[in-house]
Each structure stands twice: as structure tokens, then as C-alpha cells.
Input
Amino acid sequence: MSSGRGGVSRRKLLAGAATGAAGASAGCLDRLQALLGWRGNGQTTLRIKTLPADADSYALRLARAIGEWLQAAGIDARIVPTAEDALRRQILVNHQFDLFVGRTPDVRRKPDTLYSLLHSTGVLAPGWRNPFGYSNAQVDDLLQRQRRVTGQERRDVVATLQATLARTQPFSVLGFPETIRAVRTDRFTGWEQAALDSPIGFLALEATAMAESSPRTLRLGTTYQQEVQNLNPLAVRYRDNTTMTNLLYDSLGRTIGGDRIEPWLADSWEFERRGEDLRATVRLRPNQRWHDGEPLTADDVAFTYEFIADTSARNTDGVVPVPRYHGQASLIESVRANDLRTVEFAFTDCSETVARRAFTVPVLPEHVWQQRRRPATIGGVDVGGQVTEALVTRNVPAVGSGPVAFAEQPSSVELVLRRFDEHFLHRTDSGEFPPWMDGGLPFDRLVVQADVSDGIVVEAAADGTLDAAINGIGVETVSRIEDAAELELLTRPSNSYYVLGYNTRRPPLHNYQFRRILGRLLDRGHLADAVFDGYAEPAASPLSGTDWLPSKLAWDGDHPILPFLGSDGEVDDEQVQQAWQEAGYRYEGGRLLGR
Output
């Protein structure tokens, strides 16, 4: 069997590998095995990369369960726990992986969020822009069409998109874990309504008489150390959470009530059609300033959108958009400051509903970020030498315009922010607000402490050192929270989900039939119980839990398109053998040998 167009036969490639085996390094052998997709003895080998237990205990436990199922199906599956920085580079920048288990960014579950995740234009890009290398012309068309159409037509397009993804499996959704929090109510109340991934959520909190000492201090605990160590909203690597950057940086609009985007830094906006072109005129709130006292103007807004579209150094030919906000930036054709408070946007071919999503990016101060176009040097990052400091700086101290400002970072595990009294929430000359915005933030200082152990964070809340343990709290701490009279256990559905990601650039993962069988080796219901102790929802679509989910993809005890090849967490040998044979793969002696 030989390949055309000047390729080499598999037999010759193997012969060459045997000849040079004595002098080959382990790294070279790994690359060869990745290229061939199977081991020297013929068995298919796949490596599953994930974070170690101290960084994400869920991910490692998921990877181990998946590895056991793959082993039972004849695949030599190997778990490779990898340090966080190295894993982010290998998966999101250099694409050096077979499979990975990880958690997606915490973004609203909306159809257009799938554009950056799966459109083929992101195949070679760093970050969560199609790290799977997935390329499907039908999916590209559906992703583009859902931006243009509205009403029932859009619902039909999005339903077809979800069904196509469920069938072709660029990644497999493992489940949506619930966010677990431990809170106290002696100093602050209103935690049940507080969605703390946005400044809007903090407005729901109310200070009690006990917290009225000056200054009023809200103390939060997290296991996400990046929350206190890295304040760069544009960071090239995946951010687990954006709570602090959302507080430090305003956007033109904020998401209200789950899916409605309303003006925030913007005082108002008006959309209009000029022929086939969609445009919007955005008016900023008056008298806004950056945390360093400089005025915030329409020029800063125009700069922000130009910058996130291309952060590369000015003397380079390539374009390097901000991976995290590429979806929003790709909606904009042009942006122009008309005067100090007015910005005019021209959009690509999209609906007004989709266009509003462009208003959710953090607005940056031009006088700070224009200096960050210098080429960056960071080990392992290779995107043509065009990555600049903007994508890798820790950005400490941060200069934003949000309702809190940077105060100090006493240590690598503590961050202190202060209420920014010149923010429009805290002033009387900023116009009329909806009722939910009145009063501003209920604290003067915000102290965030990080620890690698969720148990330690929970204990700190129980003894009164913290007011709440808000991020990264695992199910192992639930009983401790419930037993503590001082604490309340709060859970809420998460927007992020765990995935088994496939590198579709590599054989045999480039074959969607192979990925479909891997998808059938996942008992998602078992994972929800065994790994998350029931604090997770199994799902067949990344839009599960929204009204975008078509009924045929609703979870009803098993994946509706790719049911598990077994039952109760146990793989059935006969079903597995039949599945491999029907897909054209050799399965002998309990080993998968290829095609």
C-alpha cells in the first residue's frame, strides 16, 4: 500500500524506522508513533494528556477512566499528566497531542461561541481557536450561516450544526460540572443571586452590619492561582477563569439574564442597515477615566478592536489576532472613533443579535497596550515569531476602567483590589441606571487568596478568614461544607464543560469513523456519578442546557447518537469487536491493529 503524489509507502517508512531505531531518541520514536498511529507491534497507541491531580483532580480522574475504556477496546492508551504551562503550550499552541482531557473556557453557551472553536480558519492558530485541527466544509458553512440568519431559520441551522458535530466528533463532551461554593452570610448576603464571573454578579451582594467597618473588605478564596498571578485579559494560554479581569476591565456591553447583552461602558447603541451592511453607533458614558487617571475616549475603543484583531509587531507581515476574542473580532469589518464619546462599527455579514456579541470584549487603554507590540520570548511558543508581549505579559499591575482597581499583590497567592470610586457605578453624574445597577459594589476592598488545595480554601472560609470559597472547589469538600454551621453550600450550573479533545491532524484520529467509536467508548452517565459524585450533567452537545438544544440531542440516559458500547461503566467486548470490524479496522486478540 503506497501513497500517491510522491509519498512513501508505509512499508518503507517502517523499514527506515527499524534501520535508525538504535540511534533514535525517545522523542523521535514518539513522533514516529504519532505519525503512524500505532506501535511497532501493530497495536494502536494513543496518549491522553491532561493536568496532574493538584491542578485539576477531575481531569485526571476522567482521563484515567477513559484510558481504561480504551484499553478494554484494544487500544494501548497511556495517560500523560503534564504541568499546566507545558500542557497549554502543547495543546493550544504547538498542537502536540493525540487526545487531551480538559475544561473549556467559561463562556456563555451561545451558538456563535462555536465559531472560533471549530471553524477551519483557526486550525493553525494558537489558543482555543480550533485546537482540534478540525476541518469540515459543511460545518464551516453552518457556522457562517448561523451568524447571518435569524428566528426559526437560525434555530434550524444551529440544530443541524449540533447534529453534525455529534456525528463527526471533533471532540467529545464529557459533562458540565456544577460550580460548588462555600459561603458565609455574617458579613455579606445575596450569594444565591451572585454570578461572580461578571461584575454584575457582585452587585447582588449586600454588606451586613458586621461588614460595615472601614474599609469594608470582601475576602474570596480560589484554587485558580492564575486569578491572582496573571491579570492579562488577552493571555495566549487558556484562562480557567476571568472573574478578576472582568472586574478590572469594562466592556461596552455585559450579558444580562443569561443571554441578553445590554450597554455597560456604553451609554447606548443604535443599529441600522445600509443596504446589505450592518452598522452600529455606540455612545460612551460621559466622563470615564482609566484607573491611572487618564481619560477614556472613543479612540481607546477603536484601538482595542484593531489591537485584538492583530497584536503582531508593526514591522511584521503576519497577523496575530487575540485567540480568546477572535470570534468577536471576526464580526467587525471596521471601527472608527467619530468624536470623544462616539464610535461607529461596521460588521461583517451577520445579524444584529450576533453582532452584539462583539461588544463583550475588554476595552483597553491605548496608552498602555500600544507599547506591548514588542516580540515576545517564551519557551515552547512557536507561531512564526510574531507573538508579542501583549499575549504573554502578566499585566501586573493592571490598568483598566472597571469598578475595581489594582491595589497590590503582596505575594504570589494574594491579590488586593480597591473599589474605583470614579467608575460610573459609583458616581451620580453617569446617567440613569436600571434598578439592578443602583448602589454599585458593596465593598471598598476585595482580597483574593489562592491555594492549591480546595480543602484549605474551605477551611479558611469556615474559620472566618474568607467570606467565600468561590472557584475550583471539588466534590470532596461537599460534606465538610455541609457539616460546618458557619458555611452554606451553593451550587450552580457551569457554562464550561470537560471534553475529550481529538487531534484530527493525526492518523487514525483524522478519520471521523474512528472518532465515533471513541465517542462510543465513553459512559458519560457513569463519569457524572463516579468522578463528579452527581454534581455534573452528562451531555451530547456543547449547547446542552440551553433552548438551542434540539430534542433529538437531549440526554435520556445515554448519548442519543453514539450510545456507550457497554453498560454500567463496563465495555462489552462483543459490541466493541463488531464496531471496529464494521468501521474497517483489524481487531485481533483483544488488540486494535489498524485497517
Q: What stands out?
A: The chain has 19 helices and 24 strands.
